Amino acid sequence: MAKSPTTLGIILFIATMITFFIVYYFFSGINYFDTTLKVNAFVLPVLYAGTAFWSVKSYWNNHQMGFRQAFKRAFMPMFIGGLLSICGIFAFLNYVDTDAKKLLNYQYVQRQKSELDKEYLSARKILKHQKDIDELNQKYKERQVSFSPAAVKGKDMLTASHFSGYFAAILIFYVVLSLFFGAFFRTKTIHQ
C-alpha cells in the first residue's frame, strides 16, 4: 500500500529525530562531533534514500506515473522530513540543551585545528628547500591565530544561518536523488 509523501515525510522526521537522540544520549562525549559527522554521512543518506525509494516504488507497483509525479513522490518525503528535522535539531540545540551546542562547537574547532596540524606536519616532511619551509611556517602561524581563544570565543556553527546553509546543501542531495528516481520510475509512453 502506497502511503502519501506527507505521511512518509513525517515518518522520516520521526526516524531522524530518533537517530539524533540515540547519538545524543549514547555517543555524547569525547567523539560527539565525529560520531555526528559519521551518522550524517552514512546513516541518514541511506535512511532518506530508502524512504524516497519506498515512496516511489510502492506507488509505482500499482500506478503509472510520469517523471514529474515520480520526482514529487521521491522529493516530498525527504523535504518534509529534512525540514522538520533541521528545525527540531536547531530548536533542541539552541533552546533545550545549549551545553551540547557548546560541546559541538568546541569539538568542531578542535577538529579543524588538528586537521591544520596534520596538514602542516605532512607538508613539512615533504618540503626540501628552506624557502618553502619558511613560507609554510609563515602560513601555519597565520592560520593558528584563527584558533586563539579570542578568535574562537564567538564562533558558532549552529546558528540559524548555518542551519539554513546546511539545509540548502542537503536539498541538492534531495534534488539529485529525486531526479534519479523520477527518471528511473517514470512510465514510458509509446506514441503511435
Question: In terms of topology, how is this protein built?
Answer:
Blueprint lengths: L4 H23 L4 H29 L6 H30 L1 H29 L3 H15 L4 H4 L7 H26 L7
Helix pairs in contact: 1-2, 1-3, 2-3, 2-7, 3-4, 3-7, 4-5
Question: Can you walk through the features of this model?
Answer:
This protein has 7 helices and no strands. It is mainly α and about 190 residues long. α2 runs antiparallel to α3 (about 65-95), α3 (about 65-95) runs antiparallel to α7 and α4 packs antiparallel against α5. The mean pLDDT is about 90.
Key terms:
192 residues, mainly alpha, 7 helices, elongated
Overall form: elongated
Radius of gyration: 22 Å
Q: Please give the share of residues in helix.
A: over 70%
> Approximately what portion of the residues adopt beta-strand conformation?
under 5%
Give a quick summary of the entry.
With 192 residues, the protein is an all-alpha fold. It is built from seven helices and no strands.
